[in-house]
Amino acid sequence: MLGRIRELRASGIAYSLGAVLTVAASFVVIAIPLFGNLGVFLWPQLSIAITVAIGVFLAQKGARHTLSLEKPRATDLLLCALMALLILPSSLYLASLVMLLVELGFGSTMLDPALAGNLDTPWLTILTMCVCPAIFEELLFRGVVFKGLQRNLSIRKAILFSALFFGLFHMDFQRLISQTLLGALCAFAVFRTGSIASGMVIHFVNNAVAVGFSLIAQTSEPMIEEAALSASMLSELGKIATEFNLPMPVIAVAYIVISIAMIAASLALTYLVLRAFIRRTEPLVTRNLAGEGPLSIAELDPFDADAAYLSRKRRAAWAWFIPGFIIIALANLTVAFTLTGAWPWGF
Description:
Helix content is 76%, strand content 0%.
């Protein structure tokens, strides 16, 4: 019982420490501009790697257990890659709709500066935007964080919370929904296969396809490149309205309807593959591996029979997530102030 609470505490500490180190890494990039553009992503990913190591140490269950380092089946990985491809349109259209709403509400949107700055070097873009996040972010969120939640909550809550924590961790409310959707799919795949590799495959394919479209757009017509890298949905819709000589509201409504239809089609196709994936896989909880699922007072050892004591320990473990949430909230406020230009205190 105390082992489960220890794993939850390790998850909370890792999450908050990861948030603190990631923010600190952004200042390190400015203060120590090593490796050029590579440093923009190298320092944050290095901070996440350090966080993973600390989380594994605090969980005291070994890397194989905490990080779900089981050997996956090749067919499972292929299905994961297919699901990542099918769900990507949903993520992209959801992100575009959110960007449209953000621009309407704040007057502007903000493009990911790391992507914009690295497109001139394709190998650097693939390394920093595809390979490193697929490895280190999965080890942290579908490894340390998800394992602690999985051991203390029902599997549905563990997947939902880990996905939401993953979306929040990107510290940009513009991408919250799309990142949460990706996190939920990765967590479910790891739960069903017992292998972190399934989450890595989904994460890599998702990022690689998105980056690939941007790289292709860069080498295409200038208008296509400009649209791909534009941070203004309204300006792009305005260009379409001008080209077809239609009112802007008509174009906006048409775009929203098309986006919703594409999201629905993407999710429907993903669901079909997901059902096949479920039929082929068997979660660890049904493989007679003890210790999965929510805490139960009936499972208490005689030594740990003080339920009030365990309840306090559990609340204390959950409290370790709070510093991370505070850092993330401040980061999102920074994004909001940047979009509006209304910085407080005269900054």
